[in-house]
Amino acid sequence: MAGRRFMEQALSDWMRGTGPDSDIVISSRIRVARNLSGLPFPLLATNQQSAEVHTHLTAVVDEPEFAAINHFQKFSLVEMNDTEKQVLVEKHLISPSLANESRNGVVILSDDESISIMINEEDHLRIQCLYPGLQIREAWEQASRIDDVFESHVDYAFDEKRGYLTSCPTNVGTGIRASVMMHLPALVMTQQINRILQAVTQVGLAVRGIYGEGSEAIGNLFQISNQITLGQSETEIIDNLYSVVKQIIEHEKAARELLLTDSRTRLTDRVCRSYGIMKHAAIMDSKEAAQRLSDIRLGSDLNILNHIHSSELNELLVMTQPGFLQHIYNKSLPTDERDVYRARLIRETLSKSKSKS
Amino acid sequence: MICQQCSQKPATLHFTKIINGQKTEFHICESCAREKGEWIPGTSNGFSIHNLLSGLLDFDLSGGDSGTSGTAHANKPQATRCENCGLTYSQFSKLGRFGCDECYSFFGDRLDPLLKRVHGNTVHIGKIPKRGGGRIQRKRELEDLKKQLQLSIMNEEFEQAAKLRDRIRDLEKNPPGAAEHNG
Ligand SMILES: [Zn+2]
Ligand SMILES: [Zn+2]
């Protein structure tokens, strides 16, 4: 368990790359749920049975086919402290349920953290592949390849009528959840977002965003994902998501154009105001930080601010989360103190980024 | 807007889902979401539909068809307990989770209305495991051919029907087992 590299950097290496449409799409993710036949699902498994699942599945990762895909490291959840678990959750590398509820839980991470394999989560096996930008097909190809390697060594719970059998009926069939994280500030500012998201839900997709007091999503970040896993092929699921995301991108682009032509000065003011506050504030709560980061990201995408890279903003998004913040300052912080440390970290990061250019 | 769960705090998480074209909206406050244990700190996707859905399942299964509420339970004598893991159907509907892969066969067709409501479908058409999947692939093909055969008989296309019948016989007589390894 030496060298927990996932603790050293807020930003996974895969996030440093850029992908298609990465001015609007932050990341694409595929998660595949699988179970071994003949053993109860984790919910009802005894300690011994979940240990058996652990043994079977981790052994596969030592097979040569895996080395051809990437270099992997295994981490047992019981050997982690709470901060380490929280950091993995904040980096989207494990689920809260693996962190808090699993027995004999394991996470297997590729060095660039683009692949995360969870054992004994809600299902025996969950394969997650993350790519920057809009690369949902690429993410599925990678996940499917890993799935094939597991399948050649273990017997999956599969039924010809219901497909891959999962603990929750919402995942049965293909077992895949494809999701895309989008930054949609202009659609929010021009008040088109509700109409568009409503249309999205009409075609079997789910939208998730966390909302603040008003109607604005915090950080203007929205996750679009498939709801249906049974009765559609993986390709259909992914193509459907892809085409909808493409359409949302076009709407967001048009809204950005509109803002630039109709209210450039107000937009510039908003972006620069947020940048100024982030560079100088002494107290910053997580909600405000997310909103200001969104303004800065938009300003950077539209060349209103031109010395900030999106990777720095992604890094700040993760670093300003409670777990990482406490890890960086190496102590547990009550909420109000956290806001002070968060402001300090943001000030330091942004002034560093300026001197770089 | 007030939280649907506790009816006290303002709802800050808004979530819409569509099942079979029926729209359901959820409005929940942060502390209720957190209580549900599906909250990923500070992220925008920390909201799982599963827990919301388990409530929905509960509702579905006691109510029968959509829109009708009531306590009338299906009076068909179907397996109410998975003999492999011991999970009962009512435990399943409370938890929203199966206990093992065999639950699916013990609960059988009883799952159809639920799956139909969640996915709009009841039958998998996606990826198949390569090992042991050859048999399933062949079975899918056979079923398909048999359907075509019935159709051509109905349409009195007897020449076509004869061809189909021969292919079905071939497939049934010579399962291409040589092509499939077991390890
Ligand atoms: Zn509440
Ligand atoms: Zn069972």
Mean pLDDT of chain A: 90
Average of per-residue pLDDT values of chain B: 69
Bound molecules: zinc ion
Strand-residue proportion of chain B: 5-15%
Placed side by side, the strands forming the largest sheet of chain A appear as 2-3-4-5-1-8-10-9
User: Can you count the beta strands of chain B?
Assistant: 2
- Strand proportion of chain A, as a percent range, falls in 15-25%
Structural class of chain B: mainly alpha
Structural class of chain A: alpha+beta
What is the straight-line distance between the termini of chain A? 38 Å
Can you tell me the residue ranges of chain B where pLDDT is under 50 for at least 5 consecutive residues? 37-77, 177-183
Q: Count of DSSP E strands of chain A?
A: 10
Q: Pick out the low-confidence regions of chain A.
A: none
- Order of H and E elements of chain B: EEHHHHHHH
Structure overview:
- Chain A: Belongs to the ATP:guanido phosphotransferase family.
- Chain A: It catalyses: L-arginyl-[protein] + ATP = N(omega)-phospho-L-arginyl-[protein] + ADP + H(+).
- Chain A: Keywords: Allosteric enzyme, ATP-binding, Kinase, Nucleotide-binding, Transferase.
- The complex is a heterodimer of chains A (357) and B (183).
- Chain A is built from 15 helices and ten strands.
- In chain A, the strands form two sheets. Chain A has an eight-stranded antiparallel β-sheet. Chain A has a two-stranded antiparallel sheet with strand order 6-7.
- In chain A, helix 11 crosses helix 12 (286-301) and helix 12 (286-301) packs antiparallel against helix 13.
- The longest helix of chain A is centred in the last third of the chain and has 29 residues, at 234-262.
- The model of chain A has no long low-confidence stretch (mean pLDDT 90).
- The relative contact order of chain A is 0.12.
- Chain A is an alpha+beta fold and 357 residues long.
- Chain B is mainly alpha-helical.
- Chain B has seven helices and two strands.
- Chain B has helices at residues 30-35, 49-63, 89-95, 103-107, 112-119, 133-154, 158-173, and strands spanning 13-19, 22-28.
- In chain B, helix 2 (49-63) packs antiparallel against helix 3 (89-95) and helix 6 packs antiparallel against helix 7 (158-173).
- Chain B is elongated, with a radius of gyration of 23 Å.
- The N and C termini of chain B lie far apart (58 Å).
- In chain B, 23% of the residues are buried.
- The model of chain B is unreliable at 37-77 and 177-183 (pLDDT under 50).
- One zinc ion (ZN) is lined by residues 3, 5-6, 9, 28-29, 31-32 of chain B.
